[in-house]
Amino acid sequence: MKEEGTLVRAHDLKPSPSDMYMLYFKGLVSKAETAELLAGFAIAILDQDENLLFQMKGPLHGSDVITDLEAELMALKLGLTRAVSMGITHLSICCNHDEIFELVMGRSAPALLMDDVQRIRQQLTSTIPVLVTDQNHQASFVTKLAMEAIDSEITIRMSSMTCSICLNNNFKAEDILISSLLCGHRFCKECVKRYIEVKLLQGGVPRCPYYQCESTLTLSSCASLLITPRLQEMWEERIKEESIPMADRVYCPNTNCSSLMSKTELSKYTIQGWCCCVKCTIPFCINCKVPWHDNMSCNDYKRLMGTNLTTEDRKLNLLANRLMWRQCEKCKHMIERSEGCIHVTCRFHHHILNHFN
């Protein structure tokens, strides 16, 4: 973590070793979805008459700053270090964070960062933890400074941001969407919106569009894109589809439904192959994946349908033969190779080679 704050001497006063001084500190983590995970800090040291001696603000750099608590502890560590360097020996540590106050008081199991805090405290003659409210003027002051530090860092980062899809780098912060807090890749909202729609229509679950990045996009992280109810429903369906193993997937044969279910889910309601769709309740055969064939075995039904294809089935077979469509042996979906080599992957990532020779 690199200390990069601006130090301002408000009063050129030499601290007295016998006086009590007050340390106010604040660590914040940015929750904005338009920027990377950023953290900022601010500290203010005052004398017993509340004259401001020092104030400092700046970003907290480093992957170890990931929570508000850790940011607060780093701000406290910086404040104590500054107080020691100023020659202060008596200090009131003003906390407006209950958990930090408990840690400083020693009433809570210490975090790893607290080891550094306690070591620095030992260099002072006395330190007194004081719990203050957010309404406290000085606490509000350092919070405002910490927010300014984060805003400044966002402005700096924005000047070098480029959408990884359209390569545009001339946009406002509100036009940027960060795909995931884990990867930090940034894109134009419109680019991500179009990508999500295409990905869902192709039958996939949207992930970070960046090349070879596997970070997952979520509905909540894309809330600002105003995804339509239809796409939301499709997204939830794709997530459910991906969570069910291929061999366990069952689709309702009703053309007006096609709801996704799992064999495990249906097994408790299945009687000798007969079961009902959990959505439309129409009965079907779980073995043949077709509407229920009453008083007929599965083999008899397949023989009958093999010689008595419906008009729609005949048209589909003719079209498939003419356009050289092939059926994936595993997922049974029809696949078209419009161009490229014979190595084709279906929407469920099964590889198909020989069918297109």
Automatic annotation (TrEMBL):
Keyword Transferase listed = yes
Q: What class of enzyme is it?
A: transferase
Question: Which GO molecular function terms does the record list?
Answer: nucleic acid binding; RNA-DNA hybrid ribonuclease activity; ubiquitin protein ligase activity; zinc ion binding
Q: Which Gene3D superfamilies match?
A: 1.20.120.1750, Zinc/RING finger domain, C3HC4 (zinc finger) (3.30.40.10)
Q: What is its EC number?
A: 2.3.2.31
Q: Which family does it belong to?
A: Belongs to the RBR family. Ariadne subfamily.
What CDD domains does the entry give?
Answer: BRcat_RBR_unk (cd22582)
For activity, the cofactor(s) needed are: Zn(2+)
Per its record, how is this protein called by name? RBR-type E3 ubiquitin transferase
PANTHER family, sorted: RBR FAMILY RING FINGER AND IBR DOMAIN-CONTAINING
Question: So what does this thing catalyse?
Answer: [E2 ubiquitin-conjugating enzyme]-S-ubiquitinyl-L-cysteine + [acceptor protein]-L-lysine = [E2 ubiquitin-conjugating enzyme]-L-cysteine + [acceptor protein]-N(6)-ubiquitinyl-L-lysine
Q: Where is the RING-type domain?
A: 159-357, 163-212
Can you supply a Gene Ontology BP term from the record? protein ubiquitination
PROSITE patterns under this entry?
TRIAD (PS51873), ZF_RING_1 (PS00518), ZF_RING_2 (PS50089)
> What exactly does this protein do?
Might act as an E3 ubiquitin-protein ligase, or as part of E3 complex, which accepts ubiquitin from specific E2 ubiquitin-conjugating enzymes and then transfers it to substrates.
Q: What keywords appear on the UniProt entry?
A: Metal-binding, Repeat, Transferase, Ubl conjugation pathway, Zinc, Zinc-finger
Record SMART domains: IBR, RING
Q: Name one Pfam family in it.
A: zf-C3HC4
Pathway in which this enzyme or protein is active: Protein modification; protein ubiquitination
Tell whether Repeat is among the UniProt keywords.
Answer: yes
